[in-house]
Amino acid sequence: MTTEHLEIGTVYKYECSREEWQAFIEAMGSGHKFEVDEENWYYWLEVLPPVFMGEAIDYFPGREGQPTPVSFGFAEGTEPITVFWKWQGRYYGQRTKRINRLS
Questions:
Q1: Are 73 and 81 in contact (CB under 8 A)?
Q2: What is the residue extent of each domain of the chain?
């Protein structure tokens, strides 16, 4: 996984104010790449069973049709899958257009 053209100014932390959490949830739902701290990354890994783990997906936004490895996919019910991955010691995520059909 590469993070070409990844220009992220905010690292969303798990320990934050209510307003910061709301800003993170909005960023998560935007479809744009976002960066989180390690604790936030593990929160999304552990809050519900992942949709999948350790797969190469071919529907990664901007890389459709190209197998792209991600760490896990998260979705709460029938909603778009948000994928998370690690790159060079940092933690990222991005909502996809793929709907979770495993709920």
A1: yes
A2: 11-99
